[in-house]
Amino acid sequence: MVTGAGGFLGSAVVDLAVRQGREVRAVVRDAARAAAVLPAGVDIAVADLADQAALTAAARGCSAVLHVAGAVAGSAEQTRELNVAGTGRALAAAVAAGVGRFVFTSSSAAVLDATGLVADEPAGPPALTDAYSVSKAEAEQVVLAAARAGDIEAMVTNPVSIYGPSPRGPHSYNALFLAAARGAEAAIVDSAVGWVLAEDAAAGHLLVADKGEPGRRYVLCGEVATFGWMLHAFADGVGGSRAATLPPGSTLPADAGTFARRSEVYGHFPPVRVADANARGLGFAPRGVAEGMALTAGWLARRAR
Fold first, then answer.
1. pLDDT band for position 304 (cuts 50, 70, 90)
2. Strands ordered across the beta sheet of 25-28
3. How confident is the model at residue 33 (pLDDT cuts 50, 70, 90)?
4. Lesser CB count within 10 Å: N end or C end of the chain?
5. What is the 3-class SS of the chain, one letter each residue?
6. Are 4 and 10 within 8 A, CB to CB?
């Protein structure tokens, strides 16, 4: 079972799982919209993260729940409700339905420390204080506590910034690349963060579902690069405009988009470093940013024709 199956990462997880020959139940809020992006033959279940009974019904008969659904933007109250309380209900539903394994999609933002380290085993407390990062860190503790209690075999994934082809289309950081290339995002803070292709992040989730050790985190990262490098590589690949790069610590204009704003947030910390031995130990072999951006530019250019 995959929650958030109609979303950017969730649809990539479903697509890859089906290609691997797995039977998938896709949990969505809008069946018609999800059907337009999900592979044929997927069992679609409609359930909201506020409805534990519906989630429990959807989880019955599944060997694993991959809880990908969550909120990136919104008020602090809305974000916490979806990311913390919603995760608690999805977890309780999996336990009630007798599911063996549970994989929670957190974020590198939940484990970044003040030195810029993103690690499977964080060396320091989380440094980011925005609603999204704080809610993901809190939800992690709910999931890891269930693993320690033996309620279910539960693991956490911490993907870094996700981009690239997805059945859902050009959402997430792809939207930032497109906006910058057409001049709608004139500037970016040139902070260094981790990046991972959506398909590679999906592969990491399925590896963790199959072979992950309960109670552990799995950072999913392809390579570290600056925002400027990524935007310029995309612009050059599609013949678009190059956004101006501002030094770390700079402030973006008030009209900067959600994903551009993340460059500003990360610009207040040292360049990101990644320690991802757990996922690599499972056989996770993601592609680097040069290959990833070439794939992404080609994919989005074809969609624009």
1. low
2. 43-46, 25-28, 2-3, 64-67, 101-105, 153-159, 217-220
3. confident
4. C
5. CEECCCCHHHHHHHHHHHHCCCCCEEEECCHHHHHCCCCCCCEEEECCCCCHHHHHHHHCCCCEEEECCCCCCCCHHHHHHHHHHHHHHHHHHHHHCCCCEEEEECCHHHCCCCCCEEECCCCCCCCCCCHHHHHHHHHHHHHHHHHHHCCCEEEEEEECEEECCCCCCCCCHHHHHHHHHCCCCCEEECCEEEEEEHHHHHHHHHHHHHHCCCCCEEEECCEEEEHHHHHHHHHHHHCCCCCEEECCCCCCCCCCCHHHHHHHHHCCCCCCEEECHHHHHCCCCCCCHHHHHHHHHHHHHHHHC
6. yes
The length of the chain in residues reads 305
Give the pLDDT confidence of 268-296 residue by residue, as tens digits: 999 999 999 999 999 999 999 999 999 99
Report the C-alpha gap between 217 and 154 in whole angstroms.
10
Instruction: Tell me which residue of 88, 69, 213, 93 sits closest to 154, measured CA to CA.
Output: 213
Hey, what are 305's tokens?
């024709």
Segment 42-67, tens digit of pLDDT:
999 999 999 999 999 999 999 999 99
**CB contact at 8 A, 107 and 138:** no
With bands split at pLDDT 50, 70 and 90, how would you rate the model's confidence at 185?
very high
Amino acid at the residue 78:
Q
Contact 275, 194 (CB under 8 A): no
Q: What is the residue type of 196?
A: V
Whether the full predicted model's pTM is greater than 0.85, yes or no, is yes
